[in-house]
Amino acid sequence: MSAGGIVFLLVGAGLSTYLLRYLPMRWYVTLETVFQRPGFKRVLSALGPAAIVGLLVVSLVGLTHGENRWGWQSDELRIGVALMLMLLSHSWYKKTIATTFVGVVAYGLILWLQQG
User: Which one of 9, 44, 59, 101 is separated from 107 by 20 to 30 angstroms, measured CA to CA?
Assistant: First the structure.
């Protein structure tokens, strides 16, 4: 790739990043009444958890193919326990950040115990 192509790529990436941050704020000012509708607020509030579940599914697909299934060293055990603790955390705290943190810590702790 030539130097001009690299500069074009970097400027395009920078401009795209800027527009991805600027345009939603600009549109919110002009479309504030649309964002205040109850149905639209429900849809927007569901985007965060939906994105987390989508990323979780994509990241776990590769972990569930193994010979040692549902044993002490299995990936399914770590995933299942972490998901159960995430559900409990969500029912107690109702906070997405706390739920995600509990799941990550549980998965990492079980992995550490299995290897140690």
Answer: 44
